[in-house]
Amino acid sequence: MKGFVFHGSGRASWQDVPDPAVKEPTDAIVKVDAVTICGTDLHILKGDVPEVRPGTVLGHEAVGEIAEAGGDVCTVRPGDRVLVSCITSCGRCRFCRESAYGQCRGGGGWILGHLVDGTQAEYVRVPHADLCVHPLPAAVRDEDAVLLADVFPTAYEVGVLNGHVRPGDTVAVVGAGPIGLAAIATARMFSPERIIAVDLTPARLEAAHRLGADAIADVHEAPGQLVADLTDGLGADVVIEAVGVPESFEMCTRMVRPGGHVANVGVHGRPATLHLEDLWIRNVTITTGLVDTYSIPTLLRMAAAGRLPTRQLVTHAFPLHRMEEAYDVFSKAGETGALKVVLGVAQHAEVAVPAT
Question: What residue stretches are annotated with the Enoyl reductase (ER) domain (predicted)?
């Protein structure tokens, strides 16, 4: 079969790799029908995630069909159409018992495309399949479902729920990439008074407005002042950091009101300064987190009911064998306008224009 293989910093290729096989009775082999590329995959390619060894197939999100199931797998069988979660969970350790699957100590957590071969291939082995693959409703299309493997659960759990968004809140989302846009969409479910989106790119700010942002601000045009003006100088109740650079995190801590929440979602590769000399007296709560994906069943039901704007995030689609081209398009999002790039979808369209 073919897979997208990491060869070291700045090097990867779509090439022949061995077919995966069932190693444990709890494994399943999934024939991949759709995958997407994550910003974390770009971090890996830059050499920012040293745990990923050369020779690893990348990717941690997929939709596909069960090709083979180990003897202990009970919830799915060959032929079932499924969503592969970005997080693997043993279901037995302390953290899994608390639904903190991202911290699994029983051979789970974020392992696909990280510690074991991932989903950007024609087939993938999924450990602990009973807990980590989700049967898909017929009403949910592949290109919609694949966004529920990571993007929407991450935005919802690590951003919106960790940030304690409540009715009547002012919510500021710093970063209008896929995670930030999904945070805007899921924050709306809690009826905030207003959502303010901050980004560098006009196209992404326009997308934020389409998805429900009530106000948008270019990062170079004093977004902190806009937040202050809209809140009578108080600051935002919840600020969601969805970029992953020191400057954006520090901006978030300046935008939040006393007693408010900063929910950090971005993956940081450099240290950020925590200004405790200013924050200690303001009763600010700062949360971080790796997604646990406990919300996938809920999000799947919402998608089946047409309550999630998943397809509005998909800007480009390619067949699997054009993986290298898709990475190039996704990595140059400022030039290409890419939000989410989906590969392997049935129509194999090169560009899918988001609905307005």
Answer: 8-343
